[in-house]
Fold:
Amino acid sequence: NEALVVDKWFAMQAAAPTTDVQAVRQLMTHPAFTLKNPNRARSLIFNFTNANPSQFHAADGSGYAFWAEQVIALDALN
Structure:
């Protein structure tokens, strides 16, 4: 129930070299995750794009497509 600990957990999951877009999408279904919490969204989505370059810059473009989807989703909330 510690928000900072949960944010750090999501951040560590997102930064793991084996975490791909599919894994991030799965993490987004976790009960503790919501796009409506800016820190929670940052901890997962931004950390994936910033701390996991091998998966974000995947040759198939899936990381870029995922990032674009999330920017659009977040824009709708702001």
